[in-house]
Amino acid sequence: QVQLVESGGGLVQPGGSLRLSCAASGKFYNLNTVGWYRQGPGKQRRLVASITRDDRTTYADSVKGRFTISRDNAKKTVNLQMNSLKPEDTAVYSCNADIQTGIFEWRDYWGQGTQVTVSS
User: Phi, psi (5° rounding) for residue 46?
Assistant: First the structure.
């Protein structure tokens, strides 16, 4: 069974850093595009950053220059390095992945989410 597991959330002061990880486990062919999303209190879930299999990246305007997404295909992991954190970055962060589970089959998976709180 394919699963995505996030880790690395927590409480950090404004200006601090956190590194989130999204690890894929189970049996599958390829981990394709992976995105990090966040949902703040009373807000809609929004895409923060994404990365394709060939390392093309996209970022929300609000995090450009502060967040960096990267992947380790050997470890089946995608990381989100978050620097210069602001209180408005407080949210539940979830990863989403397009995973090839069969020769002609792709499925969309979500992790359980990890809380990031930026507060003094």
Answer: -135, 150
